[in-house]
Every structure is written in structure tokens, then in C-alpha cells.
Design goal:
The complex is a heterodimer of chains A (114) and B (111). Chain A is an all-beta fold and 114 residues long. Chain A has no helices and 11 strands. In chain B, a hairpin with a 6-residue loop joins strand 9 and strand 10. The relative contact order of chain B is 0.33. The mean pLDDT of chain B is 95. The chains are: A mainly beta (114), B mainly beta (111). At the A-B interface, strand 5 and strand 10 of A face strand 4, strand 5, strand 9 and strand 10 of B.
Chain lengths: 114, 111
């Protein structure tokens, strides 16, 4: 089975610019997660979708970050405007759904904000 | 809110030595998962523990879940250079819906 796909793999932008990341989860996986991983730290959950509904977005900086999962499949995460502290790897993961906690991660997008 | 803490933050071992990382939750968990992230890579699922006091083995790796379902450990016997990476625990709350990752333990193995 194909894994979680993410694009782009790398992105360099200047502060105050906008950026968007795309994720395609494993086919049939109901739950999709976006994480931010700063170098040397564990993944921090930004938002969790169950199908196309938001389950948890308590740590999403909603003044600048937004995410959507149209039709319960692909998802996009947007940052507008970006700050220097947003430099991190953005990981997308998917799982089969509630009761199936094993998460499959994509390769991530490394964002550098200058 | 729920917190998941991992110790140690780093561990340097000589190849062939054993290694253990510990995970502690501030709240009772429904289950705990362990992931490994190689340098430059993404987290890869290793195992999930669900039952109180559960012990599972994968070759040289032994995973334990505490009786109170608030702590867990990962033990590697006779480390190899291929074990290098960061090991994360991730605890799911009693609803099984929200999962929080620990900060990870980075393992360095010297040949």
C-alpha cells in the first residue's frame, strides 16, 4: 500500500509570506494529523481530522494557521503570514480511525522562514 | 492537561551495551505507542501497548506498560549502530482519541 504523501519536501520563504503544505493520507484512513516538529523536539499536534471534521485544533495558532480536509481525503495546511519561529518540519500522519492509534507518517515538509 | 514526559533526553552507549528509555504520563492512558525516528527521517511506528502490565518483545527490544497505565519503558539489549535514532513514546488518553508525543530520547551508539 502507498504511504502518506506530502509536498513540497522543502520550502524557504521570508517572514510575512504565505505558504501551503499538502498531504495525501493512506487510502481508507479516516484520521489525519498535522504535526509541527522543531529540531530536537517531539512532534506537536497542530490539528487532527476525523474524516472531514476537526477533532482537535487546540494547539493550532489560528491567527495565522489554517487547515482543511475537503471530502475527508487530502488536506492542506496554510501559514499566513509566516514568522521566524515557524521554521520546523511539518509532518502529516494518518491512521485508520478511532481505536486504531498506529500512525503512519509522511516524509514531512521542512520549512525555513528567513 | 495531559503531559507525557520522557527520560533521558540523550543517551550515549558503546555498541553492545543495553539502553532504556522511560515514559511517564500525568494521566492514565488507554494505550501507549512507541515510534523510532532515524536522523533526517520521519517517525515510524514500532508497537502499541494496551493492557496494564503488558510486556512485548521485538527481537532485542522489550516494551513494558505499567500496572497503573501511566508509565512505559523501552529496553534495547546489546545495542547496534542501526539502533541510532530518537525513540518517542506517544500516549493516548482514556478516550483513545487524543495522542500526545513525548519529547523523545536520542540514542547515540559508538562502534
Amino acid at each position: 500500500e502507498a504511504g502518506v504523501a506530502q509536498s513540497p519536501r522543502y520550502k524557504i520563504i521570508e517572514k510575512r509570506q504565505s505558504v501551503a503544505f499538502w498531504c495525501n493520507p493512506i487510502s481508507g484512513h479516516a484520521t489525519l494529523y498535522w504535526y509541527q516538529q522543531i529540531l530536537g523536539q517531539g512532534p506537536k499536534l497542530l490539528i487532527q481530522f476525523q474524516n472531514n471534521g476537526v477533532v482537535d485544533d487546540s494547539q493550532l495558532p489560528k491567527d495565522r494557521f489554517s487547515a482543511e480536509r475537503l471530502k475527508g481525503v487530502d488536506s492542506t495546511l496554510k501559514i499566513q503570514p509566516a514568522k521566524l519561529e515557524d521554521s520546523a518540519v511539518y509532518l502529516c500522519a494518518s491512521s485508520r480511525g478511532q481505536g486504531y492509534n498506529e500512525q503512519f507518517f509522511g516524509p514531512g515538509t521542512r520549512l525555513t522562514v528567513l | 492537561g495531559q503531559q507525557v514526559m520522557q527520560i533521558p533526553q540523550y543517551q550515549h552507549v558503546q555498541e553492545g551495551e543495553d539502553f532504556t528509555t522511560y515514559c511517564n504520563s500525568s494521566t492514565t492512558l488507554s494505550n501507549i505507542q512507541w515510534y523510532k525516528q532515524r536522523p533526517g527521517g520521519h517517525p515510524v511506528f514500532l508497537i502499541q501497548l494496551v493492557k496494564s502490565g503488558e510486556v512485548k518483545k521485538q527481537k532485542r527490544l522489550t516494551f513494558q506498560f505499567g500496572e497503573a497505565k501511566k508509565n512505559s519503558s523501552l529496553h534495547i539489549t546489546a545495542t547496534q549502530t542501526t539502533d541510532v535514532g530518537t525513540y518517542f513514546c506517544a500516549g493516548s488518553d482514556t478516550g483513545g482519541f487524543k495522542t500526545i508525543f513525548g519529547a523523545g530520547t536520542r540514542l547515540f551508539v559508538k562502534a
